[in-house]
């Protein structure tokens, strides 16, 4: 793998950028506040990019970011599922500290407190215009939602000046966009109703009307049919407000492009949260069949193209020299996550998890070790880092970049590492997967015992559960095949002490695993 990465870096680095300055010093000398853009994908695995070892898929636009910036090989999402990772990214706090930071229904209330410090609030208070475009999935409102009226609290109440989002996921109702708290296209003569407990009378579902589905459900996705796709949950009304799945990626792209054009004359923060390759995978017709791997491969290619188009806009507007761009994914990959879309059947030799074990929902490495790239033209030299870092660290790191004090939370200032000026990262990190936690410290990973099933058969992913302690040296055994808990009791003791000191003794209290 190391030789492959060396060859990759030699072949892909198109331009050596010279004259890089330490980030904070450069900002102070110029007097210009840098923009920050976070491009966040959904269920993208470590092995899904050609810049991270994929040979069956080519992702040239994301590769260009990696080749021109700092490509991290030991970077982690905070969780192996979406909502907790997004919570940690925006709050700088471990998701397990919030009992509500778990996979949410589309009708769930907002899980970020309106008085809680957040990354966008911090930037907003220091002269930044802040925006979010794409997937939200952190809850809306504070109880019973009326989708036909202004929705609050939401993204705008936790630090975003501008928000254009979908409430949860593409496979969940309501299948509508929300523009600054208002459903786009809402019609008072066709009010929207949402229920996650029971269907509305006369509404067709995937369970009762499978013949109406153009995409067959495998598990969980047998609720209301929208655009021929059965969803999770039940929805009635809102016909004019419903999105067109195949147009979603392009729609979000246009909004992200317009956002940077509109705010190029002031410092801005953009959280650009793509929906791919989460299910349902609905590539634009221009990308159907392009990957040869079915819809999952096609939407990854579409996302790569989308990011390329966004970067063209950044270049055209003269923004690349004053913008820190961070690219990553919320958790690891999954193939069959509820629909029969040939993701498994057409996989071929492609391995979305790369060299790692597990995937989405898992405490094994593929659940949380994800692609992570920082890019800043003229400031970050092309390089690779194997230092330990977490997406949660963006809050403290950006605080350092813009010269403000970071809130007290779990985020650590890793600005020098992100900028390629240091090789030292975190000492340790707690990772989470559906309320279960483990610790990464140095080259080691320790998973405590969990009395839960080792494999989720529906998605065919090892979850990392065992009745015994698990201890792996990831430097020598990145595939986690050799459990050293018995043969190295001293290291196990050290890891357990660190884990309990950080996590507490109640770590074994876990909830029933919930897919999606």
UniProtKB/TrEMBL annotation:
Family of the protein in this entry: Belongs to the sulfatase family.
Per UniProt, the keywords (alphabetical) are: Hydrolase, Signal
Signal peptide: which range, if any?
1-25
Q: Which GO terms describe its molecular function?
A: hydrolase activity
Q: Could you tell me what this protein is called? A: Arylsulfatase
Starting at the broadest rank, the lineage of the source organism is: Bacteria, Pseudomonadati, Bacteroidota, Bacteroidia, Marinilabiliales
Cite the PROSITE patterns for this sequence. PROKAR_LIPOPROTEIN, SULFATASE_1, SULFATASE_2
Coiled-coil annotation reads: none
Name all Sulfatase N-terminal domain ranges.
Answer: 34-404
Q: Where does this protein come from, organism-wise?
A: Labilibaculum antarcticum
Pfam families listed in its UniProt record: Sulfatase
């Amino acid at each position: 793998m190391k030789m492959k990465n060396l060859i990759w870096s030699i072949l892909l680095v198109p331009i050596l950028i010279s004259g890089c300055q330490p980030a904070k010093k450069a900002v102070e000398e110029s007097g210009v506040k840098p923009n920050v853009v976070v491009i966040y994908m959904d269920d993208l695995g470590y092995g899904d990019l050609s810049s991270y070892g994929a040979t069956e898929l080519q992702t040239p636009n994301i590769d260009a970011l990696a080749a021109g910036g700092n490509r991290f090989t030991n970077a982690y999402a905070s969780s192996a599922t979406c909502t907790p990772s997004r919570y940690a990214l925006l709050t700088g706090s471990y998701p397990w500290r919030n009992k509500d930071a778990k996979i949410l229904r589309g009708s769930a209330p907002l899980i970020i407190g309106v008085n809680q410090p957040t990354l966008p609030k911090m930037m907003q208070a220091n002269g930044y215009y802040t925006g979010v475009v794409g997937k939200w999935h952190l809850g809306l409102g504070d109880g019973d939602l009326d989708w036909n009226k202004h929705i609050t609290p939401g993204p705008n109440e936790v630090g975003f000046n501008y928000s254009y989002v979908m409430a949860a996921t593409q496979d969940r109702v309501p299948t509508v966009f929300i523009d600054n708290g208002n459903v786009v296209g809402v019609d008072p003569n066709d009010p929207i109703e949402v229920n996650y407990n029971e269907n509305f009378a006369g509404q067709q579902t995937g369970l009762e009307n499978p013949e109406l589905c153009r995409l067959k459900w495998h598990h969980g996705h047998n609720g209301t049919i929208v655009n021929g796709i059965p969803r999770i949950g039940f929805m009635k009304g809102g016909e004019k407000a419903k999105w067109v799945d195949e147009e979603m990626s392009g729609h979000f792209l246009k909004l992200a492009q317009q956002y940077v054009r509109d705010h190029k004359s002031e410092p801005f923060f953009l959280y650009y949260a793509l929906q791919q390759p989460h299910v349902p995978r609905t590539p634009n017709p221009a990308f159907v069949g392009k990957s040869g791997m079915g819809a999952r491969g096609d939407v990854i290619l579409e996302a790569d193209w989308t990011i390329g188009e966004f970067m063209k806009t950044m270049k055209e507007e003269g923004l690349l020299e004053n913008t820190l761009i961070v690219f990553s994914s919320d958790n690891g990959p999954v193939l069959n996550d509820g629909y029969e879309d040939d993701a498994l059947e057409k996989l071929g030799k492609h391995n979305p998890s790369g060299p790692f074990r597990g995937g989405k929902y898992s405490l094994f490495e593929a659940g949380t070790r994800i692609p992570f790239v920082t890019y800043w033209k003229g400031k970050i030299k092309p390089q690779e880092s194997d230092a330990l870092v977490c997406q949660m660290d963006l809050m403290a790191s950006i605080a350092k970049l813009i010269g403000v004090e970071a809130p007290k939370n779990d985020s650590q200032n890793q600005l020098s590492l992100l900028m390629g000026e240091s090789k030292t990262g975190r000492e340790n990190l707690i990772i989470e997967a559906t309320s279960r936690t483990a610790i990464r410290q140095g080259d080691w990973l320790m998973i405590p015992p969990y009395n839960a099933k080792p494999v989720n058969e529906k998605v065919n992913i090892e979850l990392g559960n065992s009745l015994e302690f698990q201890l792996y040296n990831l430097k020598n055994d990145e595939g986690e095949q050799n459990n050293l808990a018995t043969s190295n009791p001293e290291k196990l003791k050290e890891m357990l002490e660190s884990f309990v000191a950080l996590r507490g003794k109640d770590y074994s209290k876990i909830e029933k695993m919930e897919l999606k």
